[in-house]
Structures are given as structure tokens and as C-alpha cells.
Amino acid sequence: MQPHGRIWQELTWSWAYSTGHPTSDQRLEAAAKAVWPYALLCAWTYLNDHAAAHDLMDHAVQNAFDYLGRHTDCPDKKLAWRIKSVIKRSARQQSAKKSREIQYGSLLDLEKVYVGQSEAEQRAYANELFARLSPFAQSIVEWRWLGYSWRKIAEHLDMDHTAVRRAYFREVESLRHALSQPGDIYRSRSEDEFEAWVAQRHQERVLEGNATPVGPCPEEAFLKELAKKSKRIALGDPRVGHAANCPICMRRLLALRREHHSRRLRLVLTAAVASCLLIAALFVGLTRGGPNSKQQTADLAAVPESVDLWNAGTFRGEQPGPLQAVSLPAALVKVTIILPRYSDPGQYAVAVTRDQEGNDLLAKASAAAIGNGDREEVSVYLDLRKSQPGSYFLSTTHEQDQASYYYPLQIR
User: Fold this and answer.
1) Total domain count for the chain?
2) Count of CB atoms within 10 A of residue 82's CB?
3) Would you give the DSSP letter of residue 307?
4) Nearest 5°: CA angle at 4, between 91 and 39?
5) Could you read off the pLDDT of 265-320 as tens digits, one per residue?
6) Are 218 and 243 in contact (CB under 8 A)?
7) Does residue 174 lie within any of the structural domains?
8) Which residues make beta-bridge pairs with 328?
9) 349 has which bridge partners?
10) Which of 28-42, 91-105, 181-195 has the highest mean pLDDT?
11) Are 356 and 317 in contact (CB under 8 A)?
12) DSSP string spanning 2-14?
């Protein structure tokens, strides 16, 4: 499903790539613009983030440029198809990676994702990288280590979060290529993996005292709010930068994160247990009170009617006799029948049929007769809502002799 609103309508991708050949630029630009709606669709369908379409398109255009260099006579239609294919493949790969993505908001369980280089070599590489980062990129590293999202960072910088992320990784990418040799693992790492590595190295660098914090340590209350990524804290607050570069504050933040994580885990477990108990209580209540609940619902919806057959003549089958006229509405009725004189106690079945042979059954119910002085009464629910107005028969049948007695019935 596509998102609604002006953001979806206004989000565009501008051509900002040059192959050095005007003809190739024109072909790529035309193909990319034609495929842009497909990039939006893949970004939303696979990543649930239509702004990610920019990254998908950039990657696809780079791939198409390389392909066009090898196949200069490639038709425009095939070029557009290739861009689409790369976009879809990249979106699906990123979607699959999300299930095992490292959460940068907490480094409690962060494992080292690179094991192919010696510790000394990785330290040297990290120190050189941090030394060359611009103030903008250094702030991004600190804010991301503190757990803030790209959208929160972009809001502080008054920029689009996609533009901020792309600018950061472009700078980092240029440094990776400048500091690495062809074939080094630093060149082959994905953006997410490299960011996790940078966050870990930043933490190690600060805890070892190799960073220079500015200003005094903030108070405990501020660190607690910072550990929870409180919205009340502005990223431009100098205390934020100090906490991200001070070994004392960082150790306290890590401890607060562990406490916050444990507290949230306890709350989740407590809520889960409470939910299970509530569901069990509701199940027991419904199981015990099921018939009563149905009875109460029927009482509210049914129309009460009374039928007095005390002095009525009866006939069994074709047996003639004087008949008592009975009238019921075409509705759900709770009918209380005063049984004929000398009726026996016990269980009675009450039915409404088309004729006195019991054919074309419209409604049927059974209940035990209740003695009321010298009379026997039986109360049942009959659903006559689908019945057409007209002439029918109301029958009563005792459970012992199975003799059915019929009375003319008018449904109104």
C-alpha cells in the first residue's frame, strides 16, 4: 500500500550523476526518470520507507553506468529494465538484512563484526579515520552512538534525513577509499556494518581516554534523560557532545542503558504475565457464564408473548375438535404457554409448522414445564423473524408419550 499525503506526491529524485559522456548521461537520465516511480514503490513495499528510494536509485544508476560502458548498443528499454532489476534486488536485500540489523541505540550486545584484521591494525585505521572526519561527520558519529535516529538528527539540522545520511556516508566512503588498499575488508564492508564498526571504535576510543571532552560533566538527571533519548534534550546542547566524548559519562551512560534495558524487560514480562492472567480469567468467566450471557442477550432482544391454552380444545393428528386461535409476531419471541388442563409435568417440545402433520418446520425449542398452582407453564424462545405473515400451527409434544397437539397459529 502506498503512503498518502503531500510527502509521497512531492518526493522526487534529481539527476546528479555524470558519466563524462553527454550521450550516456542523456540515456541514463531518461531511463532513471522513467523508473523513479518504481523505485518509490520498491522502497515502500520492501523497506516501508519511501525516502529510501534515493539510495536505491543512486545504486541502480551506478550499476547501469557500468553496464552501459560494457554494452554501448544496449536498447533504452533494456537499460530501464536493468535499473528496475537492480532496484528490486537491492530493496529485497536490504529488507532481509533488517531482520539481523544491529541496533545502534544500544551497544550492550554488540559483537565485533570484523575478525579478519589484527586489533592493532584496526585501531590504527580507526584513529586515522576519526582524525580526518569533518566536524559534521564527527557529530553524526556521536549522535548515532547515543542512539538517535537519522530523522531526529535531520530534524536538528533542519534537513531531510535521507540527505543527511547520504552526505555522511559519502564522506565516510571517500575516506575508506583513501585509507584502504584495494582488496582490504574496509572497502568491502556495507554501510550498516561499517557504521557499527565505527560506533564500536568510537566507544573504545573514548573509554581509553583518547577523546577530548569539552566542558564539565553534566548532572546525573541529564545523563538519565540522555540514556532514554529524551525528546526534551536538544542535540545541539553542549552537554550532549561532552557525554559522547567523556569516559566517565560514557561509562555511566552504558550502566544506565543496562538498567533501562533490564527495567523495560521486566515491564514487558510483567505485562505479558498480566495479559495471560487476564485472558485466563476472561476465559473462565465466559465458560462459566456462557449460558447465562446468551440467556440475558436473548431476554433483551426477544418480544415477550403469552399463550393461554388452559381451556383450549386439542386434537392429535387428524382428530377434530374445537380450536383456540393463537397469534404471534414475526420476531424473536419469548413465549410463555399455559398448557391445557390436566397436562402432565416434564419436558415439552414446542414447534411452529406449516401444517398439522409437522411438515415445513419454522421454529422449535424445548423446556421443562413449571408448575404454577394447578397449572403447568412452559417458556421457550422461538425465532419467527424469517416467517411470512399467515396461518400456521403451534404444537406441543411431551417427552414421554411423544403425542403432538396442534393449535392454529396466526403470524402477524
Assistant:
1) 2
2) 19
3) E
4) 25
5) 888 888 888 888 888 888 887 776 555 555 554 555 788 888 888 877 544 444 44
6) yes
7) no
8) 411
9) 366, 397
10) 28-42
11) yes
12) ---SHHHHH----
Structural domain boundaries, residue 29: 6-98
CA proximity to 228, closest of 258, 200, 198: 258
Which pLDDT belongs to residue 289? 55
What SS3 class is residue 1? coil
Farthest-apart Cα atoms in the chain, separation: 113
Single-letter amino acid code for the residue at 315:
F
- Answer yes or no: is 397 within a domain: yes
Which of the listed residues 69, 98, 127 is the one where a domain comes to its end?
98
Decide if 213 is inside a domain: no
Residue 54 domain flag: yes
* Boundary of a domain, candidates 98, 132, 153: 98
Q: Please, where are the H alpha helices in 180-329?
A: 185-188, 191-207, 220-227, 238-243, 247-301
The closest of 10, 27, 9, 5 to 18, measured between CA atoms, is: 27
Residue 184 has pLDDT above 70, yes or no: no
319-355 pLDDT tens trace: 444 455 688 988 899 998 888 887 888 889 999 998 8
Query: Which residue's entry shows cell 468467566?
Result: 285
> CB under 8 Å to 85, separation ≥6 — which residues?
none
Share of the chain above pLDDT 70, in %: 80
Which helix (H) or strand (E) is 411 found in, with range? strand 404-411
Q: Cβ neighbours of residue 375 under 8 Å, at least 6 residues apart?
A: 310, 338, 339
* CATH number of domain containing 378: 2.60.40
Q: How far apart are CA 390 and CA 159, in angstroms?
A: 76
Task: Tell me the pLDDT tens digit for each residue of 308-322.
Answer: 888 775 444 444 444
Q: Are strands 347-353 and 361-368 parallel, antiparallel or unpaired?
A: antiparallel
First to last CA, the chain: 51
